[in-house]
Amino acid sequence: MTILMKKSKSYSPLPKPPETFILSPSVGRRISRNASDLIALSRLFTRDPRPKNLDAAMKYEASWKILRPNRGPDKAAVALWGGREGLRMTVFTKQSLFRWIWRWKPPTSSRGSEAFQASRRSCIPHCRALALAGRLPGAKAHFIASLFCRRTGSPAPPTESRGLPPGSPALSTGSRWLPPGAFHEPALMKPMLKSRFAPMSVPKKPHMSFLALSVVLVLFSSHAFSQQDKFQGVVTQGVERVRIAVADFKAANADPNTGQLLSTFNSVLYSDLQNAGIFDVVSKSFNPLQVPGTPQEVTLDAWGNPPTNAAMLAFGNLGVSGGQVSVSGWLYDVKNTVSPQVLGKQYREDATPDSARLIAHRFADEIIFRLGGGIPGIAESKIVFVSNRTGAKEIWMMDYDGNGEHAITKLGSIALSPRISPDSSRIAFVELGKRSVNIRMFSLDLNRPVSFPAIGGTTISPAWSPDGLHLAFSSSRTGDPEIYVSNASGGELTRLTEAHGPDVSPVWNPKTGGQIAWISGRSGLPQLYTMASDGTNVQRMTDTGYAVSPSWSPNGQFLVFAWSRKYGPGVPGAQDIYIMDVASKTWAQLTHDAGSNDFPSWSPDGRHIVFQSNRAGTTQIWTMLGDGTQQHQLTHTGQNTQPNWSWK
């Protein structure tokens, strides 16, 4: 639809404006027939005529105008439009647009990929949406053209004209162009589908009394609190919080290595129980002066009465002998004077700090299992993630508490989206190679990459089935990115989705294996969907903003995902982590006022969530309880992204 409007001073202060403006919903067209030096990039149907977070390009805006129903000289034009929508038209001079494009740098995650290399050879005249001469370098021209084509769905030019083999899928998916790297990394899909490009009506100016506004705020607040209350039991999972005291373990002998190992053990044990989320851990400042190292030294009343007032007591001793560290630990119910012992364990390992940490993790997990409703603890679980601290994006692994960071891959290229198998024997991930974007496999047992076939097209977002026998992923082998399932070796390929629009980021229901949640752009903005594992019974879970990066809780009841709702709690427009009850589709917000948060992943006990956040200035890995409390940072070196928690 095109609207012709006569010249008016209110529309543009540019010198010598053209006689006729062309306002079109197709972005990137020239603003007039006789003004070749003007380019119009329309920001269509937005609620906010003056958005607070302007793009870098906006600094070079020459003029913009909002058309609204029944307002002054715009009335005739809006009548042609239908009187329902508002339209903002951004006007650039070619010179200003060129300045912005020259300063733009391609996304780092797309550098080195086939898409990026091919985009350097792309030719700008092939893009119907951007009427510019071939004066731009290939990568920038392709990115800008793709950015402006996405609204209209303009078909990609023939791959032969861009120096690619016929039928190459590297730069196009179906009938839409994508920015380089848009599906190499799920986070890159978001700017392609931001809500300012979505059709929205321009609302009339609201008139609300102070009393009415107060009533609305009260109702909204009570609704928000009621929603949050639904998820308070995610952490405790039906068990009552226990007040537990942790006594420093005593030295069992005078070996010179005992002091260092004892300090490591005590700090790790206390931290593990404090992070569990099911205990009220007594501050050590309230502990009695007499610290027990054996059952004979325990005085129950001293620990069960104020100021300690504990219900449970963990204590024991540690000694080093013959290069071995031995630990004896007990858990006592200090309220039970007849039979107080709940747990007694002995451990023996090599006398190293790592062994002291391992023993502390194991003893903490035993306590959590006994007092946490029979759910195993996570102190021995691992987190895999992507880090650039060596100069390239590689797959790394660390303990659940951020210790023991070490590199897994040494590819020297770009590795993304690591997913560890249920038996912790393999890691599936995505490699951006020089010629393709494919899933790779790394064997932790063999400590080396193992073969996985090329699926074709751009293949990303691997996800393991609960039995470890199948892999779900997204592939553009037939044009649009669709969800596929194969066996663990890459064979027996089955296509699950067939809708127009990108389908990415599948994740299995770990409890049943009978459902898959994923992200789809079939409705415009990326939204969260679920379906049966055979592709049937598709259900849309979100209906506003854009949602990405789903992760299913171990019990199959909840989904966490990153969601930018553009309203509600938190910074307007911020991306936060949300939790949703799958059955009722009710949700609650877990992160607030803390930068951009993405890629949540559940812990194997269902009580913790790991995610990435840039709240500290750089993108790092953070963790929190499933109700959004106890948020703290795990990584500090380099840029660390896309965490995935092991299954056990």
Q: C-alpha Rg, in Å? A: 29 Å
Proportion of residues in extended strands = 25-35%
Our count of helices gives 9
What is the strand tally? Answer: 37
**Range of helix content:** 10-25%
The low-confidence parts are 1-227
The backbone outline, from C-alpha atoms, is globular
Name the structural class.
Answer: alpha+beta
Distance from first to last alpha carbon: 56 Å
* Main beta-sheet annotation: 6 strands, mixed
Mean pLDDT: 74
Summarize the structure.
With 648 residues, the protein is α+β, with helices and mostly antiparallel strands.
3D architecture notes:
This protein is α+β, with helices and mostly antiparallel strands. It has 9 helices and 37 strands. The strands form 10 sheets. Strands 8, 9, 10, 11, 12 and 13 form a 6-stranded mixed beta sheet that branches. Strands 16-15-14-37 form a 4-stranded antiparallel beta sheet, with no helix packed on it. A hairpin with a 5-residue loop joins strand 31 (576-581) and strand 32. Helix 7 packs parallel to helix 9. The longest helix is centred in the middle third of the chain and has 20 residues, at 210-229. The radius of gyration is 29 Å and the shape is globular. Mean pLDDT is 74; it is low at 1-227.
Overview features:
9 helices; 37 strands; six-stranded mixed β-sheet; alpha+beta; 648 residues
Detail the topology: elements first, then pairings:
Blueprint: E1 3-6, E2 20-23, E3 38-44, E4 63-67, H1 75-81, E5 87-93, H2 94-103, H3 114-119, H4 138-149, E6 172-173, E7 176-177, H5 210-229, H6 233-236, E8 242-246, E9 250-251, H7 258-275, E10 279-281, H8 300-304, E11 312-321, E12 324-333, E13 341-350, H9 353-371, E14 382-387, E15 394-399, E16 406-407, E17 414-420, E18 426-432, E19 437-443, E20 448-450, E21 459-464, E22 470-475, E23 482-487, E24 494-495, E25 503-508, E26 515-520, E27 527-532, E28 539-540, E29 546-552, E30 558-564, E31 576-581, E32 587-589, E33 597-602, E34 608-613, E35 620-625, E36 632-633, E37 640-645
Parallel strand pairs: 8-10, 8-11, 9-11
Antiparallel strand pairs: 1-2, 3-5, 4-5, 6-7, 11-12, 12-13, 14-15, 14-37, 15-16, 17-18, 18-19, 19-20, 21-22, 22-23, 23-24, 25-26, 26-27, 27-28, 29-30, 30-31, 31-32, 33-34, 34-35, 35-36
